[in-house]
TrEMBL record:
InterPro entries xref list: HTH_LacI, LacI/GalR-like_sensor, Lambda_DNA-bd_dom_sf, Peripla_BP_I
Keyword Transcription: yes
Keywords from the UniProt entry: DNA-binding, Transcription, Transcription regulation
One Pfam family, short name: LacI
Species of provenance: Phytohabitans maris
Name of the protein this chain belongs to: LacI family DNA-binding transcriptional regulator
Top-level taxonomic group: Bacteria
Length: 340
């Protein structure tokens, strides 16, 4: 088993310097030196003494949360749940917006580690980027080896505690609802291609298409940015390319609201001419006109459960705790049978 001295020797530094870097000391060191020590920790699979970890944790009170954008209603609801549990435990929450920039996420992990937070919660989607996921997993493992705790929301490659919403089943429920109403020509407003959330929700739609004997050609899928503006733009592109569409399936509510806005501007009646369905069930979904049919995820509860995992010590050396979260179809006024 590797020792602190082994790490110091491999990195070419003193044991004291290696200890400060591993334990996130505020004493300044160069980035190159820090990278050498952390690389040695990973190569040697160094695990600090359990008693030392306990001492390191004893003065940590803040929790770091990395989201894509807290102004996004999806993350705002998740953050509400995270903060509710953290406040109940007397913890301060440090929120970091990555704006879906993988490089920023890596930087935030390092920054939060340097601030000696007690735990890090990754609340955004995973990425289809092998280099990034490998780098992120390595940084999180080093952080955990120094006594920090990690919990994630969504599908990530990091093996640890996680709250995993059933995005695939949500996509299945969404598409099945439209097929059961009689729709055949359905356009899909998807999120960014590189996100696992997009992939999983699309997989559910495609499974529903197969089960109902229908096709979902690539020409009817428009990729957007999970926001209102790009949702409207994707809607326009789909309608211009496929005038026969009778339904639009948006893979989040913000894009669905963008679709409703574009349809209204073109004088297209919802749901009489085109049905619209969203995903997530944001609070505003019930207040738009017509009220939005959508797939509900318990977003605030997901945040609360993730923070609970981050704060609670597992009993003994157990396997990662994975909490599955189901999806539910919420029928409102924006979907109906296709026009005759």
């Amino acid at each position: 088993m590797a020792t602190l001295a082994d790490v110091a020797r491999r990195a070419g530094v003193s044991p004291a310097t290696a200890s400060r870097i591993i334990n996130g000391s505020s004493k300044p060191v160069t980035d190159a030196l820090r990278e050498r020590v952390l690389a040695a920790v990973e190569e040697l699979q160094y695990v600090p003494n359990a008693h030392a970890q306990l001492l390191a944790r004893s003065h940590r009170t803040a929790i770091g949360v990395i989201v894509h954008d807290v102004s996004d209603p999806y993350f705002a609801e998740i953050t509400r749940g995270l903060q509710r549990v953290a406040t109940a435990h007397g913890r301060l929450v440090i929120i970091c917006n990555s704006y879906r920039d993988p490089v920023k996420e890596l930087e935030y992990v390092e920054l939060l580690r340097a601030h000696q937070v007690a735990a890090i919660v990754l609340a955004g989607s995973g990425y289809h980027d092998e280099d990034f996921t490998k780098a992120l997993d390595g940084k999180l493992r080093v952080y955990e080896s120094t006594g920090g705790r990690v919990a994630v929301i969504g599908r990530h490659e990091h093996a640890g505690d996680a709250v995993v919403p059933d995005n695939e089943m949500g996509g299945y429920l969404l598409a099945s609802h439209l097929y059961e109403l009689g729709h055949e020509h359905i356009g899909v407003i998807a999120g960014p291609k590189q996100l696992t959330t997009t992939t999983d929700r699309l997989a559910g739609l495609r499974r529903a298409a197969r089960d109902h004997g229908r096709k979902l050609p690539a020409s009817r899928v428009a990729y957007a940015d999970f926001d209102r503006t790009s949702g409207a733009e994707a809607t326009a592109a789909l309608l211009d390319a496929e005038p026969r569409l009778t339904a639009l399936a948006a893979l989040n509510d913000s894009m669905a609201i963008g679709a409703l806005s574009l349809l209204r501007s073109r004088g297209i009646a919802v749901p009489e001419r085109i049905s619209v369905i969203g995903f997530d069930d944001m609070p505003i979904a019930r207040d738009v006109t017509p009220a939005l049919t959508t797939v509900r995820l318990p977003l605030e509860d997901m945040g609360a459960r993730a923070m609970t995992l981050a704060l609670e010590e597992p009993a003994g050396h157990t396997a990662p705790r994975i909490e599955q979260v189901g999806a539910e179809l919420i029928r409102r006024d924006s979907t109906g049978a296709p026009p005759a």
